[in-house]
Amino acid sequence: MLVAARGGPASETSSRPPAAHPESCIQVDGMKTPCVYVLLLACLMGLAAVEPVQAQQSGKRGSLPRTDPSYKTLIHRARTEGSVPVIVELNLGGSAARTMAEVADGASAPAPAGVSAPAPADSPPAIARVQARVLAGLPRSAAAPMRPATAYRHLPFLALDADLETLEWLMGSPEVLRIQEDRPVPPLISSTVELVGAEEAWARGYSGQGQTIAIIDSGVDPTHHTLAGKIVAEACFSTSSYVSTTLCPDGTDEQIGPGAGVHCDPAIPGCGHGTQVASVAAGHDETYAGVARDASILSIQVFSRFDSESYCGAGKAPCVLSWTSDQLAALDHVYGLASDPDGPLSIAAVNLSLGGWKYTDQDLCDAHNAPMKAYVDSLRSVNVAVVAAAGNNGYADGLVSPACISSIVSVGASTTYDEVSSFSNSAPFLDLLAPGQAVEAAKAGGGYGAASGTSLAAPHVAGAWAVLRSRAPSATVDEIEAALRITGRPIVDARNGLEKPRLQVDQALVAGALPVELTAFEGRVEGQTVRLIWSTASETNNAGFEVEQALVTAAGPGAWRQIGYVAGAGTTDTPQTYTYPVAAVEPGVYRYRLKQVDYDGTFAYSPEVEVQIQPAGAHYLSPAHPNPFHARAAFTLTLTRPQQVTVAVYDALGRRVTVLQDGYLEAGVPHSFTLDGTGWGSGLYLYEAVGETFRESRTVLHAR
């Protein structure tokens, strides 16, 4: 898997990786390629894992504690190296962990000078304003930084290089909540499609069609046979700084559009990684297919070139590493596409086959990776899953970040014999297993080869997500995750005794974990009959549908009431069509909905449909209901053209009891009236409507 640039704390539960397991190398055609390990990075850089520094919200300058070990580490790096790359979380006056969907939309403030990714017009204004204030207030020494600052569009973060004076200023600013180091880290690196049941899913008609998988990696080779024509959108976020060089094709730090997501130079180890990952998720040609063979790919390249052995390892320069800030920019871009209701892409999942520091405590992982978690949560809020590789260090008690984040779907590796791969990381909070050893994958430049790593396990799950979304486009992240957990083949890890489900996508399609997928629902007016027609693409444990109706009056929709029931088809992948006629419907406007009920009693409502039954003449005065009545009864009056109308109630002797309406009424909707029998004697009453073109009355019996 590719190793992400992640900040990690120095603590009892977050540690540097030990010596890498021999099987954590990428293996291609049985030959090991040069491998770079997380431990090697940490040792050669001589860096302590840095815990994000958080300001006390006192509103005073100098609010960050100067004795905090993380603060001291950042200060030491800035003093000795001249500057330190950081990610800054800004204070909006509320919760810093809000999702993007919870930030109000609005026009953005003007982009500050020197910002490489200015906020667009639809970005939340509060974010843009505080970003502009902080950047404008930076000391003059930061006026010409080694790399431009990045202002994220959808969440309150900045990424920049900070010298000592700038770092001191940020630590003292009341508009800064947290600061964490922006880290670069290196890549880690039989047909498994049949093993996970993908072919059975295709046979049922579900192969990821209409869905897109975002591959955030080292870029994808668009000329490879199995990926040709699959890439529907591209972007690149790669950084030129004092230690790295951008790998975006046009030489900038940010490139969006055709050609931006192409793989970096295959001569540099790790540059072919994204092509491998993409092929496992969604490749398809005459001889090879990934799990979601008919899904599309959003390719985002997030790696930069490093030429220093202090970063790459002795004898291993040049290499490619990914800054955390570039990964955040990629997630920000995906969110912008996924949250656009008029956008062309239906993004099912994001694949992150990269990772950083070990965590044995998931709460600590969430706290120390707050920016990444905020983006993951925001993507979940728009129904996009983020899938991440667990890591190849052989840990039996922890995962690397970002897989350790609680809202990410973490994936470990298994063998074709359904054993946990010895190199695969494991922990109680690992979510799923998928094949990750000797996996056939595409090679950048052409051809195929066997590769191993949790990097190859994760795209099996990302592909499965697209398959299940092609079956149930409205299924939530929670529903699909539950389906995969419930139906996976259980495998016990001999190292720690933990039992985890191995991906079985065909079983997830039919085993009852996904909802009934309604594809159409309409109401047709046939005289005084409303014919309701609906269709399902597939059903799971569907007992049936309760048909509900509500009358819409000028005052709004009335209460829903059940008017019928239609039995369901149970569990089936065969499309079904249902019809239910509602006969003798009185003139008026009605809404209908379906209450789909499972065998276990759980239920879900369909979208509503609205129909209108027109009066046969110039008006329609409905019978009162109930009749007889004790306390109250109701009736409606519907007009075909607007006019002055008087509605009054008379007793059996012709005396006027009350006037319910005397004035102008609109046409086209039922006007509702209530008969309040308080103080009335028992007997027969008449209610009469008199308009410019009609007069009609009906009777009702009041029983005290």
Structure description:
- The protein is of the alpha+beta class.
- The chain folds into four domains: 22-42 and 186-234 and 251-298 and 312-510, Peptidase S8/S53 domain (Rossmann fold, 3-Layer(aba) Sandwich), CATH 3.40.50; 51-182, no CATH class; 517-613, Immunoglobulins (Immunoglobulin-like); 619-702, Immunoglobulin-like.
- 19% of the residues lie in helices and 33% in strands.
- The protein contains 13 helices and 40 strands.
- It has an eight-stranded mixed β-sheet, sandwiched between helices. Strands 26, 27, 28, 29, 30, 31, 32 and 33 form an eight-stranded antiparallel β-sheet that branches.
- The protein is elongated and about 110 Å long.
- 51% of the residues are buried.
